Amino acid sequence: MKIGFKLIAEAYSPTEIVEQAVRAEQAGFDFVEVSDHFHPWVPEHKHSGFAFSMLAAAAARTERIELATGVTCPFIRYHPAIVAQAAATTALLANGRFTLGIGAGERLNEHVVGKGWPAVAVRHEMLRESLEIIRLLWSGGYHSYDGKHLQLEDARVFDLPDPLPRIAVAAGGPKAARIAGELGDAMFVTEPRDDLIDAYRQAGGNGPLYAEVPLAWAPTEQAGAESAHKLFRFGVTGWKVQAELPNPSNFDAATKQVTPDHLREQFACGPDLDRHLEVIKQSSDAGYDHLALINAGPDMDGFFDFYEKELGPALNS
Q: Are 182 and 174 in contact (CB under 8 A)?
């Protein structure tokens, strides 16, 4: 099992994100993954740096830790050819330490280029075509592609790493999990559902299984719950809502009835080691083997100290 750390690019500046990646390596984490957003989720978030720039800077500042996007939507705001190029370059700069996490996206980030927001079935078709285009460009040489939704004309990615990056496909339901099994090298989820693993395996997937784990370290349980509410209350709405709302103000309105107690149910809040291990165990017991720990608490330095002195040793014992 590998333990990673979630870099919350909506809550911290690009320079802080890079420093957190460095600190995560020092604390003993195996990997970091960074969200790829144009907009943050809620008004309390004040940032949304460009993911591939932050990863390039982190690659230059670290030596061992693996890097990943968590996750990039490879169509609408981007074209998959640009994602193929960006991922290949990042992998080269990181000396092979990069994983491309991709998914079907959210309106929050993709509507900004004025191309609309398709229904989920169409987004899954676009995700399939994007994966095919990325794989095609990573095979070397010039290529064209004429899909139902996406086209590629006489394109080549000149700088390709060896080996190529792993592609982890995000899944919020069985349909996306099957796409991950058919066309990805790994699967990425935000909740430890064993039905997603079943769908992934049945579709032929046999790679790593990434899951985000919700923690909120703080000196007290209440402080952790309040911080998780401030930073992550959008997560209570579920993916059907998260994928559809266009701006932070909409998420603010949609979460008016969410309280810190709702977050306490999902997050390990406070300083108690056993509670943190209990929440982490939910993902490992479900079968996930690459766990990206979130810290939605108010003190990032305190969390890294907690991981280095208590949580990390307990997980590795």
A: no
Indicate the length of the chain as a whole number.
317
SS (H, E, C) 9-42: CCCCCHHHHHHHHHHHHHHCCCEEEECCCCCCCC
Question: With contact defined as beta carbons under 8 Å apart, do 88 and 165 qualify?
Answer: yes
Tell me if residue 10 is catalytic: no
The dihedrals phi and psi of 125, each to the nearest 5 degrees, come to -65, -40
CATH number for position 235: 3.20.20.30
DSSP letter assigned to residue 170: E
Q: Which phi and psi (to 5°) does residue 69 adopt?
A: -90, 140
Marked catalytic residue, from 10, 25, 37, 66: 37
Q: Could you read off the pLDDT of 48-80 as tens digits, one per residue?
A: 999 999 999 999 999 999 999 999 999 999 999
For residue 309, give the nearest of 21, 27, 12 by alpha carbon.
27
From the candidates 66, 106, 129, 212, which is the catalytic residue?
106
DSSP 206-256: -S-EEEEEEEE--SSHHHHHHHHHHHHGGGGG-HHHHTT--SHHHHHHHTT
Is 250 buried (19+), middle (13-18) or exposed (0-12) by CB count in 10 A? middle
And the tokens for 73?
């939507």
What range defines the domain where residue 142 resides? Answer: 2-315
- Which two three-digit tokens encode residue 222? 């209440």
- Count structural domains, the chain: 1
Active-site annotation holds for 310: no
Strand partners, 170: 188
Instruction: Encode pLDDT of 181-211 as tens digits.
Output: 999 999 999 999 999 999 999 999 999 999 9
Element spanning 200, H or E: helix 194-202
Report the chain's terminal Cα–Cα distance, integer Å.
Answer: 12
